[in-house]
């Protein structure tokens, strides 16, 4: 069976070491004709010499962005691809022992995704470009990491009235890493996990409130040179004001509730000066928040920690 025309798309923001390790493994896969690597405004620009000498690798640079919004980033990467099929592989992922010719003939299956049990590789998906753009790609109304991949799969399955297929665990591999890299947060694991949880809750609400479609306008970019683009500020789609306010409230209550182990009602009624809302998606965690985490929160968690230990002992 003839191999399909597959474009591997990868976006990297300040994760060069993971990218170099994963890209070298992607280069060993023989079933794609191009690998689009988008440098999403990394502080240290990625150079072509950082990547494998494989002629299929094409490095594209985007300037002007400050935040990591996977939906926006992967829509741009997909727009650079020329393949009939798109294969999203994050900067820490690669595939082995995967023959796509065994999958593409199953036309009743809209796409193939990494199994939900494969922590760290859930966003990897092989999909026809026509179907990708048929639902508008990823939602660019979502902010930060989390749920943009699930939302895409749910919309795809609803559009084609069929479930996506699963890629086997032995076919999709990834480099394990902490939550800071996943959430692009330079702070403790606890803060990064809370941020990831809050951005996922925000994006879930967005998906339910303002479903993304192919008719919606996406972000715009201006070409500066060969494979060099600039995001045009102000073109990223925004939520209606009333929905944006509720989404931000959800992000605040989820972040502080998860980080400090506080009930939602406590967070809602606590003054902003103590538990402030995010600023451009980032929360200011001050010394007294960390003190509370190290003392009161640990005491609150003791009963749960005790039950967890007992369960392991009992088996």
UniProtKB/TrEMBL annotation:
Q: Where is the Glycosyltransferase 2-like domain?
A: 7-96
Return one GO MF term.
transferase activity
Q: What is this protein called?
A: Possible glycosyltransferase
Organism of derivation: Parasynechococcus marenigrum (strain WH8102)
For this protein's source organism, the top of the classification is: Bacteria, Bacillati, Cyanobacteriota, Cyanophyceae, Synechococcales
